[in-house]
Amino acid sequence: LFAKCRPLGGISLAVEKGKGVDNRPESRVLFGVANPPDRKYLLQIIDAFRRLHLTVHRSYCLTINDGEHPYFLATFYVTTADGGLIAEGSPLFQELRAEMYTTQLMPMSALTYEKMITSGIVGGPDGSLVRAFIGFCHTNLAHAHPDSFDLEGVSRAFHNHPELTLQLVKLFHARFDPEQKNRAARYAEMLDETTGLVENFTTGRRFLDEFRRTIFRCCLLFVTHTLKTNFFMAEKRALAFRLDPAYIDRLGSDFIHDLPADRPFRVTYFSSRYGAAYHIGFSDIARGGWRTIITQGRDDYVTAANSLFRETYVLAHTQHLKNKDIYEGGSKMVAVLEADEGIDAGRLKQQLYFLQYSLISGFLDLFVTRDGVAADPRVLDYYREDEPIELGPDENMHDNMIELVAREAVRRGYLLGPGIMSSKKVGINHKEYGVTSTGVVRFAEVCLATQGIDIAHDPFRVIFTGGPGGDVAGNCLNILLNRCAKICIPLIVDGSAALYDPDGADHTALRAVILRDDIAAFDPLALHPGGYLLYRTKTRRQGMQELFKKVVREPQGLAEYWISNDEFYKEYNSLIFSVPADLFIPAGGRPETIDAGNWQRFFDETGAPLCRVIVEGANSFITPEARKGLQQRGVILMRDASANKCGVISSSYEIIANLLLAEEEFLANKQEYISDVLRILEKRAEEEARVIFRRHREGNGELLYTDISNDISREINSCYARLFGYFQAHPEVCEQPL
Predict the structure, then answer these.
(1) Whole-angstrom distance, CA of residue 691 vs CA of residue 700
(2) Which of 34, 284, 564, 576 has the fewest CB atoms below 10 angstroms from its CB?
(3) Which residues make Cβ contacts (< 8 Å) with residue 262, sequence separation at least 6?
(4) For the segment 78-131, what is each residue's pLDDT rounded down to a tens digit?
(5) Residue 540 lies inside a defined structural domain of this protein
(6) 65, 83, 103: which is the final residue of a domain?
(7) E strand or H helix at 461
């Protein structure tokens, strides 16, 4: 069992004849799974046996760990309701396998499990599909209307109307079941029938009926626009659905007004036991990072899931504008982990890895192809073309997972092999070499030069969001401290704490935590008078109230205070709007932190900006409305698609090396290759920064810096799109020698 489960995402089920304690025949069911769920899992397995009317007489279970992740190995001695045995390959065995494998897709705590599986309306596999229906409809409708289309409301639509839910499930089967006979005619008949049921859905409650019709219409679009899915693969670890993005406009303007006007090339939705994810790409060959948002508790998860689709869409669109310097278009993958509330770091890491393992498994189920068609015959492929997609590390993607993703892509025969993932050991690690920050700092240098500041020799003040232990903020701090002797850093805000120091953070103390730890690890003894550390992760309870620690450097020494939740967040969230500086580098933090409702706070009572220059190291930290308002009032703002583009350029060069060089060749020339890449990054960043300022001058200062950035990206990307369209229409040209 262990040997069969060793591959990433491994899962195995077999049955053989056994004997009971009284020598009566029993079926010995052998089940093993890598990186299993860690809560109530055995109970869920027993429930699967119960629903199939199989009696478990005894079981033996073992959990082991190979140093990377745990394995659950078990044998169950069972008989059927009439005392019979399970024959391997029989319909009962197939049903048992489907139920056992579905334990990877949905926990017993899921509402759909209780409402539809436990009640006997559907089995485990179709229950997991209903849960995916709910997740897709919620994330596509809630980003524009979070109060109306909340997760519970969407769930009730499916749970309270099982007859229509089952009709949608049957339609999905008619479209994708590889064993479906007379598929085209059956699907057309089912589609007409289902469409009629959705459009005529009524319970006599007008407002509620229209609300639920909207949900069912969304689900119908999901079924009709899915081009391939791994649903009928037994050993799947997450459900994956590759969609035609044409469905987006059919949702109606009321549900897409908050999205960029450009439409993507592909949308892929994933539903896993511990969360959900989207991958959105804006061209056939696309690359972009994979971030995982960690939530703990239902409210936290629902809040993140509300905006999951829009966040992925906006980040992917930004990535597409950013990728103008490379042959790959832009994409992004964003997952939300629904971790159990209050668990320790070890269990949280296990659940994070479970989610990420399941997602890459589902990703490869769809995108491993042979001659353009999904390699697994159980994946009915309506798209029927290769899709070279490259991923990269982003939030909560650890080094060991980066290597595992690359190895799994090679094992399963993915088109790009190890080129699926950048920042590998046989590659260019972003954090180690500071590739993204190299471009951010170069943009900052060009911008400040227009304000008469030479960063190498002149004093200047810069504030940050993003921790010193992170890639972009940490490397920006490192580069600036090495190059700028007179730099003053009065403010750093990250997820662990906020550091404010009117005289600037002590350089020696700051170096001690850069690329090692969050700002909460900064030595408070190094604060100057008036400086303080406001800790987000150091709390205590006083009765019903949660208090946050604040350490202040007063004239007589350090003083410790404990402030209320309201006081903490009022101060913590207002710091970036209250500390004057020459430069602001948002290099971390949640998307849309600065929006239409708060950007005005960047100006003092005289109307002067607190920061003259903003260079976006983090993606989508500032909304388009806020960017426009800031620039119209005199702020120089370099948007993410320009300022932090060097990370993706580096990743593209890494993938080129993976495709052209053997591992030993790359490692033998790694340092020289990376030195060349770093020089290219410096050049690309400076060239674009100077083009933006030149066009701004040529437009007499009337053009916004961000609009110029967008225009540059669109001009270059339109050339790529025309070339792709030409070669797609004339494939014979590709066969001609150069």
Answers:
(1) 14
(2) 564
(3) 282, 317, 320
(4) 999 888 899 888 999 999 999 999 999 999 989 999 999 999 999 999 999 999
(5) yes
(6) 103
(7) strand 460-465
